[in-house]
Design brief:
The protein is α+β, with helices and mostly antiparallel strands. Helices cover 42% and strands 20% of the residues. The protein folds into two domains: 337 residues, no CATH class; 106 residues, Sandwich (Immunoglobulin-like). It has 15 helices and 16 strands. Helix 2 runs antiparallel to helix 15, helix 4 packs antiparallel against helix 6 and helix 4 packs across helix 8. The longest helix has 26 residues.
Length: 449
């Protein structure tokens, strides 16, 4: 627990999985840095305007009343993690986790400034000199600049980024903007530059409970012990059988490329983030030796033992069906969403009352929420009982993002009331947009017969 950390120098590797990781970096960081600068209908494409309580995502505007969508998105994210983990292990950790993605960028900067793995080790062991100070200073300066740009972009999702850029350029940012830029910059610099694998090993809870989502049919990165053992060095092109050795030449390059510093030949370990760097480097070594690739590969425990792997199994099918249902329902709800909400609160001071004309009255408070981008004039009506009339405000103006409280009275002849409690329906519709409407049920109470 108190052992001093030994710095890990991951060796650069090339191959199919390395290219996929680079693709992941561009696919994830590209939109992150570019989206705030893209305009959509004269507005920032993605902007979470907390003071105005508006959340703009391209052509859609969400309000605090739409918190339901965020809850569903979080459930979808959790189930997606379970689904992909059960199917193919730690794909999230190896290719999409922010810690992995930003660390890839920091490692790239480090290699450009300090050189390859051996050059970095040599530089760290050397005495301090002007050359060493220049290299170290340049690396950290680039890390800090990249981290500040990351923090600036993060705040740009909450404050219009063009306004934020002007504020930063004139040193006039507000206290909260300054705090979050520096905080997120420090988090990026510390996690990707200094902590790196320690975040995965000690701080991330996922590493601890991932095994609960694995089974013998889960794709994992494994070393083929039967084929590789016993290990030993030999000249290129030598048949392993002639020297009574396995295919593993014990070059330890699979350890050198591992960002968490483990030896995959020791078996499945919670420290493995599934980046597949060891697969790329081992395939490269096998090719040079003239041996078959795949000594380290994506496989399953069943496959390693010669049994059949079952990709479609109950837990995978269950996760897939639930995800498909949730995503389909979410998309349908968003596409058919009406930016208008109607809540009805019945007056509880009296069940009902009889007015001077002998009609039975019920009093309601209607809360009309306009979630559209412009104000609207709404018409209110009610149905459900014969000759049901509405008294009070039959029309209401509601500004964008505002809530209007409208008190209305519904009245009808006692002879038109068949029961003590009767179902009625309120209707509200914008005069300038017939599609902007909502219906809400309520109860109309009357005397006992």
């Amino acid at each position: 627990m108190y052992k001093k950390r030994e710095k890990i120098y991951p060796r650069e590797v090339h191959g199919m999985f390395a290219r996929l990781r680079v693709l992941g970096v561009f696919a994830l960081l590209g939109p992150y840095y570019l989206l705030p600068w893209i305009q959509w209908n004269g507005r920032q494409s993605v902007l979470f305007d907390l003071p105005a309580r508006k959340f703009h995502i391209f052509g859609l505007t969400f309000w605090p009343q739409d918190f339901f969508y965020l809850a569903v998105l979080l459930i979808v994210a959790a189930l997606s993690l379970f689904f992909f983990t059960a199917l193919a292990g730690r794909l999230w950790c190896g290719y999409a986790c922010p810690q992995t993605v930003w660390t890839e960028v920091f490692l790239w900067i480090e290699r450009k400034v300090e050189g390859n793995r051996n050059q970095q080790i040599k530089l760290d062991k050397s005495e301090w000199s002007s050359q060493k100070a220049l290299r170290k200073g340049t690396k950290h300066l680039l890390w800090i600049l990249f981290s500040l740009w990351t923090g600036f972009t993060f705040v740009g999702y909450f404050t219009p980024i063009r306004e934020l850029a002007h504020s930063v350029a004139t040193f006039s940012t507000g206290p909260w903007e300054t705090f979050w830029i520096l905080f997120y910059s420090l988090a990026t610099y510390g996690n990707a530059g200094w902590l790196r694998e320690q975040v995965c090993l000690y701080m991330c809870p996922y590493a601890r409970f991932q095994s609960a989502m694995f089974d013998k049919d889960t794709l994992i990165i494994s070393y083929d012990e039967k084929r590789g053992e016993p290990r030993g060095g030999r000249k290129r092109g030598v048949d392993p059988a002639e020297v009574n050795l396995g295919d593993c030449i014990d070059c330890k390059q699979c350890v050198q490329v591992c960002p968490t510093g483990i030896d995959i030949r020791d078996g499945l370990q919670y420290q493995c983030i599934g980046c597949a760097a060891c697969i790329d480097i081992c395939d490269e070594v096998m090719e040079k030796m003239g041996y078959e690739k795949g000594l380290i590969r994506y496989t399953t425990e069943h496959a390693m033992k010669g049994n059949k792997t079952h990709i479609l199994r109950p837990r995978v099918i269950f996760y897939a069906l639930v995800l498909l249902t949730l995503i389909s329902g979410l998309m349908y709800s968003i596409l058919t969403r009406v930016p208008l909400e109607l809540d009805i609160i019945r007056d509880r001071n009296g069940l009902y009352r009889e007015n001077s004309e002998g009609l039975i009255e019920n009093v309601y408070t209607l809360k009309v929420v306009n979630m559209d981008e412009k104000p609207h004039h709404y018409t209110i009506s009610a149905t459900g009982l014969k000759d049901l009339t509405i008294q009070g405000a039959e029309n209401v103006n509601v500004d964008s993002g505002k809530v209007a409280d409208v008190v209305v009275k519904l009245a009808t002849d006692p002879r038109n009331i068949p029961a003590v409690s009767n179902k009625i329906e309120f209707h509200i519709q914008a005069e300038d947009n017939p599609e902007l409407k909502q219906d809400q049920t309520a109860r109309f109470l009357g005397p006992r017969k």
